[in-house]
Amino acid sequence: MTPTRLTAAPRPITSVGHRTIDPSILYLGTPVVLISTRNAGGTTNLAPISSAWWMGKTGVIGMGTRSHTVENLRRERECVLSVPSVDLVTEVNRLALTTGSDPMPGYKDVMGFEHVRDKFARAGLTEIASEVVSPPRVMECPIQLEGTVSSIMEVGDPKDHTAAIEVRIVRTHVHESILAPGHRHHIDPNKWRPLIMNFLEFYGLGSQVHPSRLAEVF
Ligand SMILES: Cc1cc2nc3c(=O)[nH]c(=O)nc-3n(C[C@H](O)[C@H](O)[C@H](O)COP(=O)(O)O)c2cc1C
Questions:
Q1: How far is CA 96 from CA 5, 42, 62, 103, in A?
Q2: Cystine design at 100: which of 68, 107, 120, 149 (Cβ 3.0–4.6 Å)?
Q3: Is residue 172 part of a domain?
């Protein structure tokens, strides 16, 4: 009779270097986007965000619900998402700690935010007319996405006052300087240099690290 062999269950591998932490934010490194919306009186608001991701012709942005932008989006249901390249970092940084809200929410007052009526002027950026929606585009941004709001969903802990906003992109404008040669509808990833917010600090992209199998298929 063959003796039964008792095998020990495989031991889970434990990591040597990882620590369990409780970070205040998870800004893992995402492109900055400038969102323009119409104010109630017809003027324009502009705000920098970096919580944004894309799927097909939909953009989903994450924003604090006490921002002037979300107030405008709830009422107007339209926006433009203008995407700055890395060389617009100075202009973007001028918009930090500003809000279109007047009066501003108490927590922003405490943090030293400033109410700014004309954020295009503050940043040194230029408004240009959109083609489908009412809010203007940012001329200096190489990528400008006109969008309509499909849904605004409160997310996370209620005390965080955050929402995921689904934006349907209805018109895409791309500066010819970042298009792939000979391809009218393709952005050349070697030419497009997004401005990245990485744990609250600004970065750019490095050069390509490896050819992509997915890119071969598409
Ligand atoms: C580079 C950068 C990225 C930001 N990312 C976000 C973001 O993803 N979501 C958000 O709600 N606020 C973000 N903020 C803060 C908003 O810009 C800020 O709340 C601003 O007051 C909103 O303007 P508003 O009140 O006129 O809408 C970011 C600020 C900067 C400078």
A1: 66, 23, 17, 17
A2: 68
A3: yes
d(CA 137, CA 191): 21
CA distance 183 to 167: 26
Q: From residue 115, how far is each of 97, 108, 181 by CA, in Å?
A: 9, 10, 43
pLDDT tens per residue, range 53-92 = 999 999 999 999 999 999 999 999 999 999 999 999 999 9
Distance 129 CA to ligand 1 centre (A): 23
Q: Is residue 63 part of a domain?
A: yes
> Which range of residues forms the domain containing residue 102?
28-180+188-204
- The answer as to whether 76 is a domain residue is yes
**Rounded Cα–Cα distance for residues 192 and 142 (Å):** 8
Per-residue pLDDT tens digits for 144-202: 999 999 999 999 999 999 999 999 999 999 999 999 999 999 999 999 999 999 999 99
Tokens 């018109």 sit on residue? 171
| Full-model pTM | 0.94
Domain of 102: which CATH number?
A: 2.30.110.10
Q: Is 96 in the pocket of ligand 1 (CB under 6 A)?
A: yes
CA of 206 to the centre of ligand 1 (A): 25
The count of domains in the chain is 1
- CA 103 vs. chain centroid, Å, equals 25
Q: Is 105 in the pocket of ligand 1 (CB under 6 A)?
A: no
